[in-house]
Write the structure tokens for this entry.
Amino acid sequence: MNNVNSNHYSSCVLLDFLVCSMSTPYVFLHFLGFFGAGFFSGFGVSNMVQIVTGLLVFFGMVNSNIFVFESRSSSLQMNRFRMTRTSVRIMYHVVSFCLNSSICLFLLFSPDDQSAAKLDALKLDPCPTREFFINDILIISTDIHTIHFILWICGPVIMLHMTIHLFFHAICTIYYLYVAPSKSISVETQRNQRKFFMGIIFQTTIPMVVFLSIVGLIVIDGVKQSMSQSIMNSTIIAIGGHGIVESISVILVHRSYRRVVLRMLKKQETKSKITI
């Protein structure tokens, strides 16, 4: 499970590094516009490359959550649904990642004439923020039917797909840990397994809450058409701050990390006393 957790932590760190520093997304939701406000733009990286990279990293983080729950579920010998063959597991996660990332295909149909697309975007949002005029914006689509299809069909379908995978593996684990535990495993081992599983739920809930909050805002905007750009920007800031909460949750869940942090704090306190 150490490798599983390492993959999850690495994907979260990579997403935070991308969102907070390299390619901070500025999203115009009403007409699906985007530009990167991070270091990548300063280095001349195109908005298309930035948004594709961001989406792939995001879905990689989501799939790392599925990988964590699937690994926990498959480690239970009595689970009849566990995957034992490595090739099957690899195929399962690759297909899941590809299905989630399929939304990137819509980027292939973004308008070639971006100047004309920006004029069309003003018809959907006549008063965008000043960033729309002073930055190089990538307009993904200005067709209202395409926008509604992406936001109301593709988005919810992908969310449902990810949720089904997570809930399936979580339910299997809960059933074989709490409802029908193996009689051949000691009580102490079962207690440790349950404790570890609760820790997994706690630390993986944070990224999913962030994702669901974005979906919730999109739904509200679709219903009321009243979400301001400031709310969208606040959502991006919340995504960037999720890494801090993720780090705190890891420290709270895992005793070994708490010990290391406390040891570092004690050393720092000792150095301060010596200096004084």
Summary: The two ends are 44 Å apart (CA to CA). The first strand starts at residue 25 and ends at 28.
